[in-house]
Amino acid sequence: MILEKAKKLILEGRLYDAIDLLEKNEARYYDNKINLLESITLLLFAHRRARNYDKLHDISQKTQQVFNELISENGNIHAILEKFDKLIKGKETREELLNAIDSLSGAQKSKIPLLLHIKFRNVIFGSNYDVNMSLVEKLSYFFLEFQGQFYYADILIFIAWNFLYKTKNSLALKYVEQSLHLFLEIDDKYGIAMTHATKGSIYGNMGDCKKAINHSLEYLQKAEELGIINTIWHACFAVALYYAMSGDTSHASTFNDRCVKLEEHLSFTDHQSTHTRMLIETRISWVKGDVDKALKMQLEKLEIIRKPHDKYFVAVVLSLLGDSYYQKGNLTKAYTYYKESLEVRDSYGAYSQVAENYLQIIIVNLEQNQQEKATEYYEKLKELKESVNEAAVNQIFSLSTALFLRSYIDKESKKKAKQILIELVDQEITYYQTTERAYLNLCDILLEEIRDSNNLQLLEELREYTKRLAIIATMRDSHLLLIELHFLQSKIFILELKVEEAFELLELAQEIAREKGLVRLEILLSNEYDILLNQLDVWEDFTQHLPTLEDRLEYTHIETLLNNMIRKWINYADVHYDSESPCYFIMSNKGGAVLYSDSYSSLPFDPEKISNIQKKIQHICDEKRADNKIVRFRFQEYSCLLKTEQNLNICYVFMGNSYLPLKKMSNLLSDFNNSEVLTKIVTETEKNQILQLQTRINLSKLIDLNFA
Fold first, then answer.
1. pTM to 2 decimals?
2. 311 near 348, Cβ under 8 Å?
3. pLDDT, tens digit (0-9, with 9 covering 90-100), for 159-208
4. Residue 79: how many other CB atoms lie within 10 Å
5. Which CATH number fits domain 581-707: 3.10.180.10, 3.30.450.60, 3.40.630.30, 3.30.390.30?
């Protein structure tokens, strides 16, 4: 039978085969309205799944027209549907309705799920992402009793998305799991893929980028198996978005570029969704420190997205605009967009996001010392909390209370604020941004206490909270937050005069920034490492003379860093690297004998200086500090990079910052390992500790290629 074959093709994900089959055979059903109705409905399903949105309106209209004709021409079906209306109103029992259905023919009974889907789907879903769950519960039995998993699963997945839009994430997860159960039962390959898409979006909503990325990658794999270009694009978009949210701009750019290529494919038809890639591109720009570029894109897209009246997306962009202006320090503009985002979200009842906007507005007003206006929105947030009683809203209200108390100068208020924050971080926080804010504000209060009391023992408590937040950031793949926390933790170690530990954390933060494509942040961290190297004598002197806390705070600027983390004002938009001035290149063996050295400065070659640098190199190697990594150190006015390869110590000496020299050193080591030069050097020096002329020439060429 053609309808069964078409449904099977849809379940297999062969949507265009199903469309061809249904369109070619539509005429044969004109004398059989109920089969015609199912044919058009299946066609609607296939086009919706293929994301051919331009065709959906006309097919939907035709479906409704045929449905109306059917019930006007068929008294039995009309009577049964009227009984469903009575059931919903409580004027008919399930048993009475089932008895009435028994009077239908077998063919008519099999169409009950189809009829319910068409009659009630639009009633179940309101215009503001509302769901009539009472109606769903009354109808669920009949969908399942008459083998209507195909139609019922469609309703359930849509319920999950509507709860997602309202940020009711636990309910969204509940219904996506129910839909998955049905999709698996009927082996609906596209449906199964969509459950991963949905879960990815839910976890993204929750700030758990790791789970969001994993489900989106699973979605992409299944989309590629289906081979539907629009679906593959959507999956690539999801992967790119959650990588961008995590702060991994390298992977985000890769999948965003793939979206761009897919948009050029002849089979790509989902052109109305392409503007949503702005969410990826603005996030990438924002994370990289280019707020102006992100802001420009957001403003350009705002008017475009207003036209389709997608309230959820409009609210997201308005809130992002608020964030961008906030990061730029334009609090007036930030307030304007946060307020507009709030109004849109309030119109469709996304209460946790409404509470988030209230909190953003409260913060903006507190920072402008507009206490009265901040209090006005605090009271509105309180009213919302009391009226909806949602966990996320309650926690956001608690956080806003703590921030209010922090704004007062008396110690008692600050003590109460600290207690609220401690209680917040000790519970499961349902809205992810509350977690970050609560921890960072708690750390800031502790830092104030350390300064006021001169009690360095509190540093252990401060470090503990940063560790706990770092664990959360790691679990959620929140890379940008993790990098900033390592930066902060390095400064805590410096306050404790644990300089080596500080170097390790700065190096780790820089490595993560490099992996995730955060170039400007990588440069900032590299420069911080250099600054600490330059201050090493000061800190070594501090360890002997036990400086005051005031002295330590002055050198670390930890208060400024934490303050900027709280406000998302870490500014690295203008960070750049300076080209270094090459001075010397030295290669020695494990015993300390110099095998090769060269000078790149205009100064005459200084064997004594080379010898002194070599002594420093040997000292570092004896301490095993050069094992498996490039070591940065200072010698007099010089910066130095040292790496041990196959018992050879390779050292580059220069003037300036180390960001670019590190890149050059890495490239040189890569060239070494991809050529025979290193092997020849090792072989020759093991025999007589003298390099052959040709080996020296080849070595010199490689060095000049990377450092000249």
1. 0.91
2. yes
3. 999 999 999 999 999 999 999 999 999 999 999 999 999 999 999 999 99
4. 13
5. 3.30.450.60
